[in-house]
């Protein structure tokens, strides 16, 4: 499994370097390139006044076009790369920006710093960058809970899922996964404009995250102080979650930290009465968020070890 080695190198680069702002300012980022293609297709094909069947078919067409473009780009790059160790390293470098291990850590740490200093306004502003809920009235528990949920879910979507598909199929696998994930982020939500048009994007994203979300949960459980309790919480509480996948890493992390996650939250004027994950535990605070980041680092080491084992075998 040479592709496992590719993803291990890519993970190591991303964990150390991230995606520097200077590089982003110079060349952008692959996700933004995919996003521009989706934006154009959305403008051309998601037409107001068309019936639901036509809009759904148009959304399916968008999924097909974007994923095919991503797959072909990955395959062409692989074809152009040299063979041997140099080709492996170059493929890893190209896969590197398709991971978000360092970026996720930095965004959550940006919430922790003002929260630990009791700067609630700064912490609310920071957490608003990574969650979609209304953060204006959140206290320490709400901010910590939102940041931990984002950490758990994005550990799956932004790190383990691309590693998983990259280990299976190399650069084309990562590229197609990121295309699907970006489609879901941009047009897979349930707003009036995208409820029908984004149906295929949302369903496909659920499908490709099915295994990675559970793998992420198992990795969090493996580095938990009580892996058996984490497994039990996953089995009992993950199915309660609004997402078929998001509840698994959330449940594992909640049990690992001994806190409760999910629960009611505000989206504008609406209150989403979500069930609790690990509901008998206490609300999290700044200290738990700090421990959550340590758990995340440990989980990344576990993921790297797993890739190394697969590579060697």
Give the low-confidence spans.
none
- Can you tell me the overall shape? globular
Overall structural class, as computed from helix and strand content, comes to: mainly alpha
Q: What is the domain total for the residues?
A: 1
Secondary structure: number of strands = 4
Residue-averaged pLDDT: 94
In order across it, which strands form the biggest sheet?
A: 1-4
Describe the sheet with the most strands: 2 strands, antiparallel
What's the helix-strand series? HHHHHHHHHHHHEEEEH
The end-to-end distance, rounded to whole angstroms, is: 8 Å
Assign a percent range to the helix content.
Answer: over 70%
Number of separate helices: 13
Strand content: under 5%
Task: Report the C-alpha radius of gyration, rounded.
Answer: 20 Å
What does this structure look like?
The protein is mostly helical and 313 residues long. The chain has one domain. Helices cover 72% and strands 3% of the residues. It has 13 helices and four strands. Strands 1-4 form a two-stranded antiparallel sheet. The protein has a two-stranded antiparallel sheet with strand order 2-3. Strand 2 and strand 3 form a beta hairpin. Helix 1 runs antiparallel to helix 13, helix 3 crosses helix 8 and helix 10 packs across helix 13. It is globular. It starts with a helix and ends with a helix. 44% of the residues are buried. The mean pLDDT is 94.
